[in-house]
Amino acid sequence: MILVFTRKVSHALNYVLEEIFSKYFHVEFEITNDQEYYQSAKNNIKIKYISLNDREIDGLWIPNSEFLNTNFTELNDINLFTKIEWIPMKKVEVIDSTFIKMLKLLNLQNNNFTFHEQYSLRPVYFCIKSEMGFDVFAHIFLLLSNMEEIILSKDSAHLDQFGRIQSHKLSFVKTQMHLLPMVEIAIDRLKEFLKLETSNNRGFQIIPTADIDQCFRFKGKPIYKIIGGALKNPKSLVRRIYSLFSETDSFTPSETVQTILSQNPNSKIFWLCNRKQSKLNKQAKRNNIEFQNEIQESTKYSEIGLHPSYQLSEEIQKYTEEKNWLEQISNQTIIHSRQHYIHLPLPKTYQILNKINIQQDWSMGFNDNIGYRTGTCIPYHWFDIYENKKTDLLINPFPIMDVSCKNYLKINSLQANELGILFKQNIQYYKGNFCFIFHNESVSETDGWEGWKNTITSWASHI
């Protein structure tokens, strides 16, 4: 058992130690602020998590920045998040090489990163002169809690037209920190510092996940919408007329995403099932039998989840009603969810999901970028900084999405293919989950998505 001594025990510290020691290392730990008890204990590994290194206290010193004792509800200092420093850590060839290749592919530069024979430079928060080099517990908590994003989101200037955080506003994105799994890198550094021998039963996983925003491209739409769409896009006239007489449709999930999802036992499919159609919620009408059949069919090849309709009001009643309808149609208990448009106002969204008994969320990634939104490639439990407690909601992060690559980064399918390979390489090193998002549109080979089916198939394939 690992024994940790600190002057003040906080919920945030207990949370981050659970995430590290219980989940990553599979070892027991105990926290105490009783110095006499700590000194007399015979644990093999003892950690003194204090601000200054008191050499009269036994154990390995990890500097305590006191950040985890902060009243997070009153924290508004944005300057805190700009204090990122690059410090030497163990050299890992695959991490260095994938990082350099991502920068080159995205036409980015990083003057802080340079090659060294004996070590590599890694970005950290709370850099403190010590053998450890930084407050590793505060660093990890800051990333997993989305602290910077939550504070920035209070100012609408940092949000896009849909109320989503603009990734380029985040300080760790400005330093390209988002392209590295900084939580896993920090934990690897901690393991090395503690000289900890552990057995890790976790294995690398590829998890394809599909969002079904529009079950059908044309099928099921009234003729006036088909004609109206043709007037706006004359090139689609033939396909729209053909859809009136055809049994097939280019977006049909059983003809697009099924092949990819059915080949992976961990795959997920998320269904938008809004009651009323709108500009942002374009799903087929609920009473469409073919739509209902597609939902029922999908339960045979993938685990299904809720894709809540875009809500400006974020009313819990609408989430509940949509969840209940999907459960009724699918005859499944819905425990998975991903936000439509990756519209994820925090912490309110996760508070709602907790209340409606969603157990796992799959929204933690950027809509307008690639990379690790909370610095990790491994599922973790959400910590509500306003309630100051760990929740039961399990967060499954994703580093890449088809729409982000094509519509925001403006890269082609071959470049996106390469990015997927690079993510898989560094995630495999840390035995994490390569979870990615694609849509039935992106594998339809229509409407500008020509060539992307090969990319998505590649993402779903092992290295």
CATH class of the largest domain: Alpha Beta
* Strand neighbour order, sheet with most strands: 9-8-7-15-14
The number of domains is 4
Number of strands: 15
Give a quick account of the main beta sheet: strands, pairing sense, barrel closure. Answer: 5 strands, parallel
Helix content: 25-40%
From the coordinates shown, what is the CATH architecture of the largest domain? Alpha-Beta Barrel
Strand content: 5-15%
- The coarse silhouette is globular
Mean pLDDT: 92
Radius of gyration: 24 Å
Helical stretch tally: 17
What name is given to the CATH topology of the largest domain? Answer: TIM Barrel
Low-confidence stretches: none
* CATH homologous superfamily designation of the largest domain: Glycoside hydrolase/deacetylase
Measured distance between first and last alpha carbons:
37 Å
Task: Briefly note the structural class of the backbone.
Answer: alpha/beta
Features:
463 residues, alpha/beta, 5-stranded parallel sheet, 15% strand, globular
Topology diagram in text:
Blueprint: E1 2-5, H1 11-25, E2 29-32, H2 35-40, E3 45-48, E4 60-61, E5 84-90, H3 93-105, E6 119-125, H4 136-144, H5 147-152, H6 171-174, H7 182-194, E7 205-212, H8 223-232, H9 237-245, H10 253-256, H11 258-262, E8 268-271, H12 289-298, E9 303-306, H13 316-330, E10 336-337, H14 348-355, E11 360-361, E12 380-384, E13 389-395, E14 400-401, H15 402-408, H16 413-429, E15 433-439, H17 452-459
Parallel strand pairs: 1-2, 1-3, 3-4, 7-8, 7-15, 8-9, 10-11, 11-13, 14-15
Antiparallel strand pairs: 5-6, 12-13
